[in-house]
Amino acid sequence: MNTTGKTSLAVAAASVALLSACAGQSGTAAPSAPASAAVRSLSPSASSSAPSVAPSTPAAPQAASGPVGCKSADLGVALNPDQGGGGMNKTRFTLAFTNKGTVECTLQGSPGVSFVTGDNGAQVGAPATREADGGPVVPLAPGATATSTLSITNAGVFDPAECKPADVRGLRVYPPGETAAVFVPHDQQTCSGADKSTMVVGQVTG
After folding, report:
1. Are 70 and 175 in contact (CB under 8 A)?
2. Domain-by-domain residue ranges, the chain?
3. Which residues contact 187 (CB under 8 A, 6 or more apart)?
4. Contact 182, 88 (CB under 8 A)
5. What is the pLDDT of residues 117-147, one digit of tens each?
């Protein structure tokens, strides 16, 4: 074989080897994903995100408004004869509560009443018996007056040994719902026995 023929065979063999190498590389290499597809796979779906809603705060309840119970310091208390009641052994009076304050207040129930030896004196005998608890709420505008009945049994109708008569100078009156008393002058004789009540007091009415 001449030199030209050898050279042609070598070139042909090299071409076949190069084609085989390219074919092998194209069969094993995996195609790369486009860059835009990779970006889309990392973005959250619009339908999966929910808007944030701030929790609502309930409104604070408003304080109830209206008249409050009458205070002893704002009341004038007087003891007046009741011409429509009483008898030989009992004397009937009316306790009058007048609002001396500047705002409306309320009274409900029966006052507390007891005999005392003076303005700041000691209590004498048992306190008045209340006719009933509760009762209507009585609104008392400034300058207005509400009343309560007070019946006092004469000390002379009781056995002196049990009654133990004693002279008193007035009444200690506690308006309904109050712990501060008002002194009301009233001279008379009553029973000093601790278990002998000579008074009955009614509910406050308008």
Report:
1. yes
2. 69-201
3. 167, 168, 169, 170
4. no
5. 987 789 999 999 998 878 899 999 999 999 9
| Tokens, residue 41 | 């796979």
Which of 1.10.10, 3.40.50, 2.60.40, 3.30.450 would CATH assign to domain 69-201?
Answer: 2.60.40
Nearest alpha-carbon partner for 112 in 203, 176, 28 = 176
Integer Cα distance of 163 and 196 in angstroms: 7
Token code pair at residue 90: 């009992």
Contacts of 154 (CB under 8 A, 6+ apart): 89, 90, 91, 198
Burial tier of 148 (Cβ tally within 10 Å: 0-12, 13-18, 19+): buried
pTM of the shown model: 0.67
Instruction: Report the run of H or E that residue 42 belongs to, with start and end.
Output: helix 35-42
